[in-house]
Design a protein that fits this description.
This protein is an alpha/beta fold. It has 3 helices and 8 strands. The strands form 2 sheets. Strands 1-4-3-2 form a 4-stranded mixed beta sheet, with helices on one face. Strands 5-8-7-6 form a 4-stranded mixed beta sheet, with helices on one face.
């Protein structure tokens, strides 16, 4: 391995339910699952495009996010954010922001999964860095 690879590990209440949610919504494929005393202590999921996601049951050392979510927001890049959002809602997620065209050239929305984690789902940003900053500057003058 030539450098670090980052794989988010989501701490949840109800790890097996979370695994099923990520399978249904994100197309995740379980790779491994280890339990101790009936609780999932580590599960690895392969995501489309080669990324990986890990899941573990909350415990005294690793608490789940508080109600309303924690300080991390995960991004999902997809060609069809509307479909991913709908699948998430169909499987118990709550909409934070609806999917809509954004001033910086992406189509994005945000949901909170049933386990407290927030996800931005959208298309890639289609503008240059300078165009994005100009669009955000113009948007902030009107809000």
């Amino acid at each position: 391995m030539s450098g670090p690879q980052i794989s988010p590990k989501l701490v949840v209440r109800g790890a097996d339910e979370a695994i099923a949610f990520y399978e249904a919504v994100l197309g995740a494929r379980p790779r491994s699952r280890y339990a101790a005393g009936g609780a999932v202590v580590f599960a690895s999921l392969d995501l489309p495009r080669g990324a990986q996601l890990q899941v573990k049951e909350a415990d005294d050392t690793d608490p789940a996010p508080p109600e309303g979510g924690g300080g991390v927001v995960l991004d999902i890049l997809t060609d069809d954010p509307d479909a991913v959002m709908q699948r998430a809602l169909d499987h118990g997620a709550s909409e934070v922001f609806p999917v809509a065209d954004q001033p910086y050239g992406a189509r994005q929305g945000r949901f909170r999964d049933p386990f407290g984690h927030q996800w931005v789902v959208g298309t890639p940003v289609a503008m240059s860095d300078e165009q994005v900053q100009a669009a955000l500057d113009a948007w902030s003058r009107h809000t």
